[in-house]
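Entry 14. Ran structure prediction on the chain below.
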Amino acid sequence: MTVQFFFTQHNIYFTKRTALKKFIQDIFKKEKRSLRKLTYIFCSDNYLLGINKAHLQHNYYTDIITFDLSDTPRKIIGEIYISTDRVRDNAASLGVSIKNELHRVIFHGALHLCSYKDKTLKQKNEMRAKEEEYLQAYFH
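Output, structure tokens:
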């Protein structure tokens, strides 16, 4: 399968995994990218902190780290690590459901692999608009 989910802890689950995986594949189609393989790893804060330190030399918690492992920009291979601890905390502080925040982060990682960035304010606004577009399409 093109999209895979792995769980290092079991405090998050999806009721419609197959539909979500298909929707993620559709994001790549809509963004005119060819998805070869995408692996999501749902993990703890400490697990992701270890990756952040080892691979990015960052010593802080984050909700997501996306690795583009592609040989070419048009045939995407990626790994996306998501801290379910951060997702829960962010959902609470933003006043949104865990389900909504988790899907936003899932789509955020896919959008990074579709060449969207979020370093500048303009890029962040474009990323947020795309996240919202896909959240609305998925849930409505």
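The mean pLDDT is 94. Will compare against last week's run tomorrow.
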